[in-house]
Structures are given as C-alpha cells and as structure tokens.
Design goal:
The chain is an alpha/beta fold. The chain folds into 4 domains: about 220 residues, Orthogonal Bundle (Arp2/3 complex 21 kDa subunit ARPC3); about 180 residues, 2-Layer Sandwich (Beta-Lactamase); about 140 residues, 2-Layer Sandwich (Alpha-Beta Plaits), CATH 3.30.70.270; about 200 residues, EAL domain (TIM Barrel, Alpha-Beta Barrel). It is built from 29 helices and 25 strands. The strands form 6 sheets. It has an 8-stranded mixed β-barrel, surrounded by 4 helices. It has a 5-stranded antiparallel beta sheet with strand order 4-3-7-6-5, sandwiched between helices. Strands 9-10-8-13-14 form a 5-stranded mixed beta sheet. Helix 3 crosses helix 5. It holds the Pfam family GGDEF.
Length: about 850
C-alpha cells in the first residue's frame, strides 16, 4: 500500500446518518458504490493490459520472492503514520515505497501486484474494514498497475531492456500519486468539502515522503547489489529513518490531539451558548443543552481522532432520567444494548481499555452486545454523580488496536466533556431558578415576560390574565406562612389544571398569578376567566382544615388601537392589574377598558404630585370637634386631611390616602398632619384653651422604629404636652403585625400620648390583644352608631362596647352621632365622648374658630385654663 491508503478509514462516515437526512445519506452510498465498481473495473482492465505489455518471464525458482514482498508490505504498513483529513477520510503515510521500489528489480509485475493485494486485503480484514474491500482492491490494482506502466514507459524512453533506477523511482512515485488522486475523487463523489490548496499541499507532502522512502529503498538495494557485505550499513540507515519517522509521528499526533481537544472544547462551548439562548422549563433547558446534531458532531470528531469504528456518547439529562445515546460511526447491532451492563457500572472516572479475548465474562458479554472486539470506555462524573459514558469501539488505523496515546487523548476529552456537561447542567439550574418561582415551580415575572414576548408579537388574539386570591394575608396572619404557602401551591395547581399544561403560567408575588391565553378573544376570554375564578374560589382542603377563599380575575388583550404603542408583556400585565383592582367594586371578573387606564393615570398623578401639593398648600387639615357627653365640654378635635387638586378638584381621602400609603409616602403625610395639629394645639394653649388633637396612624407608621423619636421631637418643637396628643389606629392596623406594632405603641404610651382604637367592632375584636394593647380609648365604629335607632342588634353591640371599655378602664368615644336620639341613648349608656355631624362636620381652621366662638361658652377651669362648653 504505497504512500497513502484508503484502508485506514471509511470514506463514508456512518455518522452521516445522524447529521443528514436519511435520503441524502442513501444517495451518497449509491454514488460511492458506482464509484467503487468503476475503480475496480478500471483496475482489472489496467492490470490485464500491463500484464500483456510486460509479460512474466520468471521461473519457479522465484517462488519465495512473492511471500517475502507480501510480508514486507505488511510490515511497512504497520509502521505507518496516520494523517486525518477534515473531509472524513484519513490516509496512512507508510514505508511501503521501500518494498515496492525493490520489487521493480527482483520480481515481475504479477508477483508484486499479487503481494500488494494479499498484504492490503489481509490488513483490511484484520482491521474489520469489510465494507470498503472492493474499493481498496481496485485502488491497489491501479496503484501497482500505474507504477509499472510509468516505469516501463521510462524504461522504453531510455532505450533500456532492463529496469533502471530512474524508471523504478518514477514508478514508485506514481503509486502514492495514484492513490491520492483516487481518494480526492472519492471526496468529490461523497460531496465533501476540501479546498484546492489543501489538496495540493497534501499531494505535495505525500510525494515528498514517497520520494524519501523510494530513495532510501533504491539506495539500499543498489548499495547491497553493487557492494558485498553492505547490508549492515543499509539496515542502520533504515533504522535511523524509521526513528526519524516515529519522532515525526509523535509530534504530528500531539499536534493533531491538541487540535482535536480545541475543536471539541469549541463545539461544546458553542452548543452551550445556543442552549443558553433558549428560555424554557428546566427539562427543556437540559434537553437543549444536549442537542443531538451538535453532540453527534462531537462524537464524529472523537471517532476521527481515535480512528475508531464507532464512538458512542451516553448522556444523562436529569439525575433520575435514562441515558440518551448519541453515536458516530458504524451502527450498533439491531438489538438494544442493556443500560446497566458491565461497561455502564464501571467505578471512577478514568479510561478503561478492554479486549474481548482478554476480559472477564461480563465485559466480554457487553462487547458482544455492541458487536465490538475492543473498547475504550470512560465514565463522565461530577461529585460522584454519573453524567454520562463515552465509548470508543474497534480502532481501525493500526493493526495493534488502541494504544496509550489513545487512552490519554480520550481521558482528556472526557474530562472536558464532563466539565462542560456539569457546567451546563448548573447553568440550566441557575437559568431555571432565575425564571421560575421556587415555591410553585411556575414561571416568575421575568420568566413570564420572556416566554410571553414571542407569542404576543404581532398578535391581537391573545390575552393576559391576572389572578389574585384575597385570603393570602389572612391565612398568613391566622395560621402562619407555611399554611399560606400551601394555599398558593394548591391555587397554582388548580390554575394549571384549569388552563392546561401548555399555557404560560406565572406566580407574580404573594397569591397573585398571571397566565397567557393565545388564540382567545372577547367572550371566550371572559368565559375562561369566569371558569377559572369559580374553580379557584372553591374551598381549599389544607391538611386537616378547609379554607374558604375568593378570587378576582382581571384580563387585558391587545387591540387595534394599540398598534402604534409598544404593547409588551409588562403593559398588558399592568392593564390586567388595573382590571383586578376594578373588581373590588363588586364584580369578580373584569376585562380592561380604557377608562380604567384613566383611573390608574389619575392615581399615578396623585402619587407623583403629592409632595408638590404639600408645598403649594393644596393639602390642608380640617378638624372635627369631640364633646364630652356628661359635661357637654369640647374635649378635643380629630385632624382629617383634605386635598383640593387643581385638576381633579376635591379628592376624597379614601381615594388618595391609600395611594399615598401604597407609594410609601404615608410618613410624609403623617408628619404634615402632626405638625399642623400640634401647631393648632399650641395656638389654643396660647389662648388659654386646653383642647387635645387626634391624628390617625397607618400600619406603616407602626412599622417605623424611628416614629416615636420623630413624635417626641415634634412635641418638643411645638412645646405641646403629650397628653394633648391622641393617636388613633385601627384594629386591623395593629393586628396586621402585633409583634412589630406593640413595641412602637408602648414607646408612644410611655411618652404620655393618648392611644385610641378606631373603628372598634369591625376588625378582629380580639379581647386578648385588646388587653395587651397600651390604649386609653376605644372609638365605636359609626356604622353601629348610625343603626342604633332602628336595629336592636347594633344597639346591643354599642352597649356591649361601652360596658367592655369601661370594664377595662378605657374612655369610650362614639363617632357618627347624627341624631339627638342617638346622643341621648349614648349618654344613657354612659358613653364618654361623642363625635359626628350632630355636633359638627370637619371644619377648616378658620371655620373651626368661628364655630367655637358661636357654639361654645368659655369658663375658667380648676387650673386657670379656659374650657369650652357646648351651648344647648
């Protein structure tokens, strides 16, 4: 096999069935079969022609020359250097030119041809390259035939009747040139890509190596033939040349191994980058990271580098999932290879080399299942977790099989692959955690935004639903967050069951969810939302209890009017949120309409303009007087905030206070009201009046640890005694987080400030907590006071609160007193203080002064202060 040989590779890689459509692969096989028949036919015809041109004139005494030449060809082939070409074909640079050039002098054409055929085909069969025997046989015929034809032609041109060294040298160089041209033609037949420059460089290098080999063989023969006892010198030169070739072989192999490692690392990195661009579920992330075509390319590269008949990658996508197989090279046998055979149970992470005739029965059985005679196998592990297995079956390029360099190369590649797999599994986990809610496993807000972006692009038949459960905070307060989390998990499961597995679903925060419906419009969205709300509002059996729940659903869809706007996921979520807020008016399912957007814009303007409104005097404090029922004296006022907006006019406190509180500005509002109230109390004190002022507190004030210090500073600044300041707080505000509110209340009470529980009877009404609260007053909610005259139940509630308050030593204040009969009933019950429209509406500061002047009489008290008594 002079110069180069196709015996060391398979010109049609079996991995083509993985990379390319099966029809295209079958077309390549068909073209190569036609090419093989053409080469074989040409070889036989050429051999017959040359045999007739150069007839055999030898005798039977030359019988030993044929076996010696065949043995020489075999030996020269085993000392070859493998060169891999990116087209999928590899050539072997060998010493076969040496026995060939000698064969020109010692044997006729037929003997050299027979020796070459026997050596070449025997090597193919030993290496189990049975699928390309006919092609290689034809190539062998054309190599030797063209070599003797050129040698004979040169001999005729020189006018010689015997073989000369120029003719032998020319013929020897023709053989590798013919083999190279046949291989390049095979590349074209198989439609592989190879640049012309690459082909020319390869041909030039092969001719240079062939010339060196032929020169050494020719020189050795001429020296031995012309000089007796010169064979030791020729042998020394041959051994030196062999050592030089082997050194070059090691250097070339090291270079090719480094290139292969670089290629594999780049392939893994590129496929990892492509996988990172695909947002999906965790399983999808991992599957994307193990793309079949990408990993088949990696397997093919490893196969080519090891010159193996087959490389199998078995990769585990998830810890509990089965191995996924990616293969390059000859297909596995038809039956299924057991997934837990001996090769899959190997410990450690280093490369093992097994031959079928040298292995224990379990290993031998595993090799038989794979149809292999030898195997390199290495587990891919990370932290003792099996990520996969790499198997390389049956080396083709050398007679002796896999060597130590192959073991080292596969071990290094396996280390790279294990690191890449582990990193990408970690990346998939991190990406999953970044885009998913850890409690429910659903998408989170960023994940929903990314998944919904593409379906919403250029579509109007889609809708974003927002779902809110209104019992989350209640369950958290009553039963703890563990139970509330169970509620959320159960709600997410119900939404998934109601909408199906393919609908993008996210948990936004707390007990708020979002879903994307595609291909759904108008009435169908309304029906889906109502059906979903009905399912979510069913009682929740959580462990041993059942929790009643209610759900609100709002939805928004892109409309034609939005074509000029950037209607992205966030905008639709915002609209759906506005629709959910609109459901609090009574309807539990609402679709977004533009008027809701105006409400949201109004609220946004109020929040953003609030500080400016304070500075410009748009916000003011009104005061509603409170009167002692037994003495008819004005004992205090309640400070109530009012806002006259330049665009919206008079704003209801129930509208802007919650918005200000939600925006985190309640501290600013409380500070403003407190300063105004203390300034008013200071003026009254300067006039000799002792009138207390009551300021409402928010739950956010009770969460501010610095709030007591701020109040102390305000009292000192206005020089108002703390007993003239009352803070009113709702039961729900205190009970929202009593562990945080109680220390703040105790600090305020320690300052001497009066604390009152507002709207008593409508909140938790927990007697246990009421006894713990450092309060001085309870204010009966006006809903009970207004209903006293017509509802005996309300009358009983008011009487009970009065009695309860007095039993606890508290002052009882009734608000909402609008009729004389209510005032008389409260006075008969022993209620301490009354407040309501019967006495006065909330008044601005100037009108309050006029009211005091007109409706009260001033008299000196026991401590020289002036007291105000209501005129009857």
């Amino acid at each position: 096999m002079p110069g180069t040989s196709g015996t060391s590779s398979d010109p049609v890689p079996a991995a083509a069935d993985i990379h390319r459509p099966s029809g295209e692969a079958r077309g390549d096989e068909r073209r190569f079969r036609i090419y093989t028949l053409t080469v074989l036919t040409c070889g036989l015809l050429a051999a017959a022609a040359v045999s007739l041109w150069l007839p055999f004139n030898g005798g039977t005494d030359l019988w030993w020359i044929g076996p010696v030449l065949a043995l020489s060809f075999l030996l020269a082939e085993q000392l070859g250097i493998n060169v891999d070409v990116r087209s999928g074909i590899s050539w072997t640079i060998s010493f076969t030119e040496i026995p060939l050039v000698i064969g020109f002098f010692v044997a006729p054409f037929e003997v050299v041809l027979a020796a070459h055929l026997v050596a070449g085909i025997s090597t193919l069969l030993v290496r189990r390259v049975s699928g390309r025997v006919l092609y290689n046989a034809g190539a062998f015929l054309l190599e030797i035939t063209s070599a003797f034809a050129v040698a004979g032609l040169v001999e005729r041109l020189m006018g010689s009747t015997e073989m000369t060294w120029p003719a032998a040298l020319a013929g020897t160089l023709t053989a590798p040139l013919a083999s190279t041209l046949l291989a390049l033609a095979a590349v074209r037949v198989l439609r592989r890509r190879m640049r012309i420059g690459t082909a020319l460089r390869l041909t030039g290098r092969i001719l240079v190596v062939g010339f060196v080999n032929a020169s050494v063989g020719l020189s050795g023969y001429l020296v031995i033939d012309g000089t007796s006892h010169a064979w030791p010198l020729v042998l020394a030169v041959f051994l030196g040349l062999s050592a030089l070739y082997w050194a070059y072989s090691d250097l070339l192999r090291e270079q090719r191994d480094m290139e292969a490692l670089s290629d594999v690392s780049l392939m893994v990195a590129r496929s990892g980058q492509q996988a990172a661009a695909r947002p999906a579920s965790r399983a999808d992330d991992l599957a994307a990271g193990v793309n079949v075509s990408e990993w088949a390319t990696i397997a093919e590269r490893i196969k080519d580098q090891l010159a193996a008949g087959r490389v199998v990658l078995r990769l585990r996508l998830e810890p509990t999932a089965a191995m996924r197989t990616v293969m390059a090279g000859e297909p596995l046998p038809g039956h299924e290879v057991p997934g837990d055979d001996a090769l899959m149970r190997l410990p450690g992470s280093h490369v093992r080399h097994f031959r079928i005739n040298e292995s224990n029965p379990d290993i031998a059985s595993a090799l038989l299942d794979r149809g292999a005679q030898e195997v390199l196998v290495v587990p891919l592990r990370s932290a003792n977790q099996l990520l996969g297995v790499v198997e390389a079956h049956d080396r083709l390029s050398r007679w002796r099989g896999f060597g130590k360099y192959d073991v080292q190369l596969l071990g290094t590649m396996a280390s790279h692959l294990a690191t890449a797999l582990d990193n990408r599994r970690l990346l998939a986990t991190l990406r999953h955690d970044a885009y998913h809610d850890p409690l429910t496993g659903l998408l989170n807000r960023p994940g929903f935004r990314q998944v919904a972006r593409e379906p919403l692009r250029d579509r109007t038949d889609a809708a974003v639903l927002r779902v809110d459960l209104d019992v989350f905070s209640t369950v958290s307060d009553a039963l703890g967050y563990v139970w509330a989390d169970r509620m959320v998990i159960a709600a997410g499961r119900r939404i998934r069951e109601a909408l199906g597995p393919d609908v993008p679903l996210a948990r936004l925060e707390g007990a708020s969810f979002a879903a994307l419906l595609v291909g759904c419009q108008g009435a169908r969205v309304q029906e889906a939302a109502e059906r979903l709300r009905a399912q979510l509002s069913e009682p929740y059996p959580v462990d041993r209890i059942t929790v009643e729940a209610n759900a609100m659903v709002g939805y928004a869809s892109p409309v034609a009017e939005d074509s000029d706007e950037d209607m992205d996921v966030d905008a639709l979520l915002q609209r759906a949120d506005v629709a959910v807020r609109a459901t609090r008016g009574g309807e539990e399912v609402r679709g977004y309409v533009p008027s809701m957007g105006q409400m949201f814009l109004r609220r946004f303007q109020m929040v953003t303009q609030f500080r400016q409104a304070l500075e410009e005097g748009q916000v003011s404090v009104h005061y509603q007087p409170k009167v002692s029922l037994p003495s008819k004296q004005v004992v205090g006022v309640e400070a109530l905030v009012r806002w006259v907006h330049p665009e919206f006019g008079k704003l209801d406190p129930d509208e802007f206070v919650p918005a200000v509180e939600a925006a985190g500005l309640i501290g600013v509002l409380t500070g403003f009201v407190l300063d105004q109230s203390l300034a008013r109390a200071r003026k009254w004190m300067d006039e000799g009046l002792r009138v207390s002022v009551a300021v409402n507190l928010s739950v956010r004030n009770l969460a501010d640890e610095d709030f007591p210090a701020k109040v102390r500073q305000a009292l000192d600044r206005f020089e108002v005694p703390p007993e003239l300041l009352t803070f009113e707080l709702t039961e729900s505000g205190v009970m929202a987080d009593p562990q945080k509110a109680l220390p703040i209340l105790r600090e305020l009470h320690a300052l001497g400030i009066v604390l009152a529980v507002d709207d008593f009877g409508t909140g938790y009404s927990s007697l246990a907590y009421l006894r713990q609260l450092p309060v001085d007053e309870v204010k009966i909610d006006k809903s009970f006071v207004l209903g006293m005259g017509t509802d005996l139940g309300d009358l009983a509630v008011v009487r009970s609160i009065v009695e309860l308050g007095h039993s606890l030593g508290l002052t009882v204040v009734a608000e909402g007193v609008e009729e004389d009969i209510a005032r008389d009933q409260l006075e008969a019950m022993g209620c301490d203080v009354a407040q309501g429209y019967l006495i006065s509406r909330p008044l601005a500061e100037d009108r309050l002064e006029a009211w005091l002047q007109a409706r009260t009489a001033r008299s000196a008290g026991r401590h020289t202060e002036t007291v105000l008594t209501l005129l009857t």
